[in-house]
Amino acid sequence: VQLVESGGGLVQPGGSLRLSCAASGFTFAKSTMSWARQAPGKGREWVSGIYSDGSTYYADSVKGRFTISRDNAKNTVYLQMNSLEPEDTAVYYCAIPDLSTGWGVGAEVLAYSWGQGTQVTVSS
Questions:
Q1: Each residue's pLDDT tens digit, 48-99
Q2: Could you give the dihedral angle defined by the CA atoms of residues 5, 85, 121 and 90, in that order, rounded to the nearest 10 degrees?
């Protein structure tokens, strides 16, 4: 299994970024995929997830601003991030989530596989 993120960078508050995660080594189309993030000094938290049927999950903190999508033909999952805030600054990770502990705030963040992460910095 390999998950390779790209698209991070430095952006001003209110700006946008699109993260990509190229996946290989497993049956992507049948897999739930997700994005998590970890800010400096904080624990890792789920940001968004997308099931094989296209249904989605979003953390309350990003609802209305972030959009997750997938392209099964390209084995790629995306995270479109709009109206970025300094509080969104974190390392963002692509993952095949283990949802035995759920998505919610405070839930233990488990995954069968993680990408290497990509830094997103929101600052003026």
A1: 999 999 999 999 999 999 999 999 999 999 999 999 999 999 999 999 999 9
A2: -60
